[in-house]
Design goal:
28% of the residues lie in helices and 27% in strands. It contains ten helices and 20 strands. Helix 8 (280-286) packs parallel to helix 9 and helix 9 runs parallel beside helix 10. The chain has three domains: 3-65, Archaeosine Trna-guanine Transglycosylase, Chain: A, domain 4, CATH 2.30.130.10; 74-187, Transcription Regulator spoIIAA, CATH 3.30.750; 205-393, Rossmann fold (3-Layer(aba) Sandwich), CATH 3.40.50.150. The termini are far apart. Strand 15 (245-250), helix 7 (253-266) and strand 16 form a beta-alpha-beta unit. The strands form four sheets. A seven-stranded mixed beta sheet has the order 16-15-14-17-18-20-19, with helices on both faces. Strands 2-6-5-4-1-3 form a six-stranded mixed beta sheet.
């Protein structure tokens, strides 16, 4: 096993259990280290401080353990996955009769940086964000089958777009265990097609579950616009909530087709729903004012990294300004950012700037974030990536 030695004073964040070692903190590496290897991290005084996956890039070590006695073996994976499962049982999401869709592992939030596992009925979808997790995918899959016992039959691996492309890992999506064409899962009593083959993330935006449920409470009797609808999750909840009309908009014709399928799965031949494959800004430009009294803005990440932060913040300001301009008096706006590079204060400032420019009176009803099955490690605040506001617009 190779050893990584830190520069003097660079161990302070690790003493506070932050799970990343940045390249600038490293003094030298001893041994023939390969990307994805497990390495040991030492202070400049040669004191052990952490053990984790090595990777070329800004984040060079993702810490798996701070315990020198804890080795990375089959027991380690099984123990960490069992801890994650018990956490989901404790928060009441893993054993509900009306729900079989949830996140089982959320990277750093479950002390497994670089790993995501979502559960969709009898299928688990695993996603690696580091070379180390990629190389150990079969050990993790086997441990997962033991931990989940008879709860799942299939494990699908979906990491083609999430692994560092420069590593040239030759990754391919596909089943590690089992194989199933059944792709319908249940979320709070509603059914959804999960496209883990070609869909975004692991096939569904599990992180908006509680926010969709909140929207349902505000939907009765309202005309609702769901922008950037993707697979129509918010639209389906709005229909169950008693909306008078729901319009779903996405620039992707494929997303619109998925939205229609999910609506039909729950509300066949429901004339309240309409779907449009169109650019969001163009659609908002062309609609009449006061046409909608509830608007949902849930765009894809405008900023994947900090280099484009300024443009992203302008994008959030523009799309929210357009919503403030068009929404009906007494309307409600659900607005979100899933960009990790955009922090809570920056997102709020963009929305508040848009509100001020509109000249309308705006009140905050709810401040939203990711659900409990997407936990934030208290030592890793960067894990809070989803930001949302529910606003009342006079």
């Amino acid at each position: 096993m190779s050893n990584v030695y830190l520069k003097s004073g660079k161990e302070e964040s690790l003493k506070r259990f932050h799970p990343w070692v940045f390249s600038g903190a490293i003094s030298r590496i001893e041994g023939n280290v390969e990307e994805g290897d497990v390495v040991e991290v030492f202070t400049s005084q040669h004191t052990f401080i952490a053990r984790g996956h090595y990777q070329v890039g800004s984040i060079m070590v993702r810490v798996l353990t701070f315990d020198e006695q804890e080795t990375i073996n089959d027991y380690f994976w099984q123990h960490r996955l069992e801890e994650a499962r018990l956490k989901r049982i404790a928060i009441g999401i893993a054993q509900r009769a009306d729900n079989n869709t949830y996140r089982l592992v959320h990277g750093e939030g479950d002390n497994l940086p670089g790993l995501v596992i979502d559960i969709y009925g009898r299928t688990a979808v695993m996603q690696a964000h580091s070379a180390g997790m990629h190389f150990q995918r079969m050990e993790i899959a086997q441990a997962l089958m033991k931990v989940m016992d008879d709860k799942i039959d299939n494990i699908y691996y979906k990491s083609e777009t999430t692994l560092p492309y420069k590593a040239e890992l030759g990754q391919e999506n596909g089943f590690l265990i089992g194989g199933s064409k059944e792709n319908i899962a249940t979320e709070y009593g509603l059914k959804f097609h999960i496209d883990w083959l070609r869909g975004q993330k692991t096939g569904f935006f599990v992180d908006q579950r509680e926010n969709r449920a909140l929207l349902e409470r505000y939907s009765r009797g309202r005309n609702i616009l769901n922008m950037f609808c993707y697979t129509g999750g918010f639209s389906v909840y709005a229909l169950r909530g008693g909306a008078s009309r729901v319009d779903s908009v996405d620039s992707s014709a494929k997303a619109i087709e998925l939205t229609k399928q999910n609506v039909a799965l729950n509300f066949a031949d429901d004339g309240r729903h309409h779907a449009y494959a169109e650019d969001a800004f163009k659609y908002l430009d062309e609609i009449e004012k006061d046409q909608y009294d509830l608007i949902i803005l849930d765009p894809p990440a405008f900023a994947k990294h900090r280099d484009v932060l300024r443009n992203a913040l302008q994008g959030y300001r523009r799309i929210n300004a357009k919503a403030f301009e068009k929404i009906k008096h007494g309307g409600i706006l659900f607005t979100f950012s899933c960009s990790q590079a955009v922090n809570k204060d920056q997102f709020r400032t963009s929305v508040f700037t848009a509100a001020a420019a509109s000249g309308r009176k705006v009140s905050i009803l709810h401040q939203l974030t990711q659900p409990a099955d997407h936990p934030v490690n208290i030592y890793h605040p960067e894990g809070e990536y989803l930001k949302g506001l529910v606003l009342y617009v006079e």
